[in-house]
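Entry:
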Amino acid sequence: QICLSLVKLLFYLAHSPLGSIVLLDFQPRQFVMVDGNLKVTDMDDASTEELSCKEDNDCTLNFPTKSFPLKCSMAGTCKGINEKKNLFNAYRYFFTYLLPHSAPPALRPLLSDILNATGDLRYGINETLRAFEKVLHLYKSGLYLQKRPLLLKDYISLKGFRTVEGEDYKCWPSYSHLGCVLSVHSDEEAAAICNSQSQCQSFIITQQRTWAGRPLASFQSSWTDLIPDTNAVIYIKRSASSGERL
């Protein structure tokens, strides 16, 4: 969410009515999230001026660990230097820390491609935005889910019940520090996640939604402490319920 919002912001800056705008003091502390969107808090160090040049050798974009040769345009400015400077700063301050860690496994290669392409400045802001929007579409639609055996048949569902809230086993990247709460596309994906965790014996699809519209599922190591909840459905492993009366 943070990286996509940042890319949308940089897309606007690259195509602003004033021309391509560069953020000269590009640091995480210069941004804040407002209603799920990233905003710049200080525009004092923004500039529309692009580096002037006479030849391509005048247009090297330098960073502490990398340098990029750019082209000198017919107008005598280094072509796209503001856009590329913003994009590489986004890569080194945001993408490298946020992109690799919490996506579903099937989407990680696509995010790795974005990371590598922006780190080498092979992508401009237009290509980067399209790549992010493709990943978002796959994420929201569930099209990233690989065909696999249906696992929900291994679970018994009880409508109108949930377990008592409390501390349980932890997982990464959980939305709750008290237990294992993950976003899922469907109850079938939740069943696959539960099957992959040795501690998991049951799960509940909650009414909470993430920024992408995906429901949150709470995965639990037991199911015995049930309480009525008309909005809830608990899914219990058939193997866990063997010998128990539901």
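The longest strand covers residues 226-237.
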